[in-house]
Amino acid sequence: MAEQNRTAIVTGGSRGIGKGICKRLAAEGINIAIGYNHDEKRAAQLVDELEAMGVRAAAFQGSVENLYEVKRFFRQTLEYFGSFDILVNNAGITADKTLVKMGSEVWLRVIQINLCGTYHCCHEALQTMLPNGYGRIINVSSIIGLTGNVGQANYAASKAGVIGFTKSLALEVATKGITANVVAPGFIETEMTKKIPAEIYRDIEAKIPMKRFGTVDEVARLVSFLAADESAYITGQVYGVNGGLYM
Ligand code: NAP
């Protein structure tokens, strides 16, 4: 069923999984505020694509690691759309090194964007969602937050942190009409996974029970399910979308 006059904020919406989520939600009639950091051109192109689908769309710049920029981005969203109902915390990075070689700068950068960024955006979103008595928060974690991975201690810690954070948030807002859930993708075809060397890529593929990487649309499908009005009784949950790689 099409949502009525709902608006979603999607961080990291300009490409990859975030772009897939924007398009999927727009196909359901949901207006979209795209958060981007560097890629203004791609964000502007996506605004045109989404508007051509018949919804309102706008793109706002801001790094999620920076509270001042997040506050500006949320203020601009409120000015443009009046309000919002859905927050998808999708922005994220990897910066892989084995722990022995991982200096504190690389450690902190990933924690600051993936975990602190999620905190910044959820904290801002509650200022609107609590008075509205309605909200759908979907935080994008990763299979790596559940399994760990060689060379990804920073990323695994940030994504495991997102899970504990989301469960705590879900408890705090459970009676306020707001749900908070985690989507934990496995290996999905995006620019992030294009960085994986070919040999390792093939090894991973061989270990996935479905023998292939997932698509952004397959992640977006799950996000849109959780973002729906009708998903009101689902909160504090972690959903894998990983071709059976982690059960
Ligand atoms: P991607 O193609 O590298 O895109 C990352 C997105 O995050 C971009 O839109 C980028 O915006 C944005 N971003 C990065 N740093 C940011 C910052 N400081 N502030 C605001 N936005 C920022 O990545 P993806 O594969 O689509 O991944 C999306 C999410 O899914 C991430 O949280 C990732 O950890 C998670 N995930 C991905 C996979 C996978 O296999 N791909 C698996 C599990 C989980 P700009 O381009 O404008 O900088």
Q: What would you note in describing this structure?
A:
The protein is built from 9 helices and 7 strands. It has 247 residues and is of the alpha/beta class. Strand 1, helix 1 and strand 2 form a beta-alpha-beta unit. The protein is 48% helix and 15% strand. The relative contact order is 0.15. It is globular, with a radius of gyration of 17 Å. A 7-stranded parallel beta sheet has the order 3-2-1-4-5-6-7, with helices on both faces. Helix 1 crosses helix 9, helix 3 runs parallel beside helix 4 and helix 4 runs parallel beside helix 6. The model has no long low-confidence stretch (mean pLDDT 97). The protein has a single domain, classed as NAD(P)-binding Rossmann-like Domain (Rossmann fold, 3-Layer(aba) Sandwich), CATH 3.40.50.720. The two termini are 30 Å apart. It binds NADP nicotinamide-adenine-dinucleotide phosphate (NAP). The site of NADP nicotinamide-adenine-dinucleotide phosphate has 29 residues, from helix 1, strand 2 and helix 7.
User: How much is the average pLDDT?
Assistant: 97
Q: Which structural category do the helix and sheet elements fall into?
A: alpha/beta
Count of domains: 1
Small-molecule binders = NADP nicotinamide-adenine-dinucleotide phosphate
- β-strand percent reads 15-25%
Proper CATH architecture: 3-Layer(aba) Sandwich
**Radius of gyration of CA atoms, rounded to a whole number:** 17 Å
CATH class wording: Alpha Beta
